Structures are given as C-alpha cells and as structure tokens.
Amino acid sequence: MSDWIPLPHLTALTLKGDDASAFAHAQFTTAFDGDRGQQWGLSAWCNPKGKVISVMLARSRDAEVDLIAPANQLETLTARLPMYAIGRKVELLAPLPVAGCLSPPEDPTRVLGPDPSRGIRTGQALAPENPEAIARWQALDLCAGIAWLAPGRSEQFLPQALGLEERGGLSYRKGCYPGQEVIARVHYLGKAKERLVGFRLAGRVETQDGDLSDENGQRLGRILGTLTGQEATIGLAVAGAQCQPGATIVCGDTAGRLCEPAELC
After folding, report:
1. One domain for residues 175 and 209
2. Mean pLDDT of the chain
3. Are 225 and 141 contained in the same domain?
4. Are residues 14 and 115 in the same domain?
C-alpha cells in the first residue's frame, strides 16, 4: 500500500459536464480530445498575450477533467475560468484536497507524469500533515522542473520559459487556445528568450519572488519557488536563454550557482 501525505500547498478543481473536455481543450496548452492518457500531466492556462496564468497538473476521465494547481491560485482560477464557460455544459467543483505518495502508486491513473516515481490524488480524506514529507515532495517538484507559479509571478512568462515544452505541457498541434498564436510564433519563427533553470545558494536564504543577479549586480533571472534547508537553498527561476549551468549567481548577499532542475536532488 502507498502512504499518502496531504499537500496543503496544492488544491484541486474538477470540470464536470458534457463539455468539460471540449472546454479544457479550448482553454489549456495541452490536448483533451481523447488522445490524452488518464495519468496526471503538466498543462497551463494562458492569457491572450501567451503569458501563463497558472501551471497545472491535469487529467481527463469520462465527462470530467481534473486539475491541480497551487492553493494560492485558487481564487484566480475559480473567479476567471467560469467566465469562459458560458454556453457550455460544464461546472467547476472546487476546492478539493490533494495528497501525494513518494512511491509509484498502484493505480496507474494516479501516476505523476513529470515524475512517475510518485503518485498524486484528489478529493479524499487526508492524514495529518507531515512537514518533512511535504518538504521532500516540494524538493522533488523542483527537481522535476514543475514550475508552480505564485500569484506574484502569474502572467509574466511564456510557457516555453517555464519548461513546459520539454515536459509535455505544451502542444503545437491541438489548435487554438488563449495566447496560442504568440506561443506558436516563438516556436516556429523565433527562439525563446528565456528558459527554466535550477539554482543552489549556500545557506538559508529567503528568496521567494526575488531575483538572481550576476557578480556585477545585473539581473539574470526571476525566482519562481525555493526550498530552504539547513545548508543550502534550492529553487527554480526563469533566466535568459544564454545563462548556462555552472554560472555564478548572487541573491541578496549570498552566492550560488545555476544548474539544470534535475541536478537539484
């Protein structure tokens, strides 16, 4: 049996109704037209300028689409998503609790696509919170390159800058959705100017929503999320495409280095 732990920093929503899949297909960056598997995969909701409002985990099942997003994005999603559902047979159920397990789940529909060594589920009674297990989960999310967005970072980045293209959270063949033309233009006619990077800082540093700079004080990137341990602070950031792993960075008065997200664990 898998040991399930509550993940209070995440929340779940369900789109339910005959038009749930069609609605999700028309709004999000991945396909929901029947070809999508039932395991959890990355997706995103963008504004008309192609900037990501929220990074999500999503899966389809029958006449329902399940979504998992940061708990601090719940108000935005529940307020804005129904505005685009007018005329469709779909209702939004939220919030629902989220739990994860740090081993492969027995049920394949609970596999976490970006990291199949873990499982995730929604809507069931949860055990007491376990801070150590939650911290381990968050570290593995960073390592998997899951670029959860806090409200302060919403609508700032194209999905390519958040690593969604490499991790299956962005489709160029599914048809229109908000911001699709801008996003496709970057892919077919140009090159993304920003990319997702990992970073490691020496010691305990409060960095949420901060910036990474070079040794001369020039900004290199914007921090998305961090996890602070006893000896180091690790995190994800969006940096210029020219930034390479191994580069020296500074956050406040603390030095560190860039790396690929997979090198954080």
Report:
1. no
2. 93
3. no
4. yes
CATH number for position 32: 3.30.1360.120
Phi, psi values for residue 159, rounded to 5°: -60, -30
- Indicate if the pLDDT at residue 36 is higher than 80: no
Q: What is the pLDDT of residues 89-99, one digit of tens each?
A: 999 999 999 99
Instruction: Identify the pLDDT of residue 34.
Output: 63
Structure tokens, 177: 């959705």
Q: What is the pLDDT of residues 55-80, one digit of tens each?
A: 999 999 888 999 999 999 999 999 99
Domain housing 221: 194-264
The per-residue pLDDT for range 104-158, each reduced to its tens digit, is: 999 999 999 999 999 999 987 678 889 999 999 999 999 999 999 999 999 999 9
Both tokens of 231, joined, read: 């000896």
pTM of this structure: 0.95
Residues 171, 175, 179: CA angle, nearest 5 degrees: 75
3-state SS record for the chain: CCCEEECCCEEEEEEECCCHHHHHHHHECCCCCCCCCCCEEEEEEECCCCCEEEEEEEEEECCEEEEEEEHHHHHHHHHHHHHHCCCCCCEEEEEECEEEECCCCCCHHHEECCCCCCEEEECCCCCCCCHHHHHHHHHHHHHCCCCCCCHHHCCCCCHHHHCCCCCCCCCCCCCCCCCHHHHHHHHHHCCCCEEEEEEEEECCCCCCCCEEECCCCCEEEEEEEEEECCCEEEEEEEEECCCCCCCEEEECCEEEEEECHHHHC
Using DSSP bridges, classify how beta strands 248-251 and 98-101 pair: parallel, antiparallel or unpaired.
unpaired
**What is the total count of domains within the chain?**
2
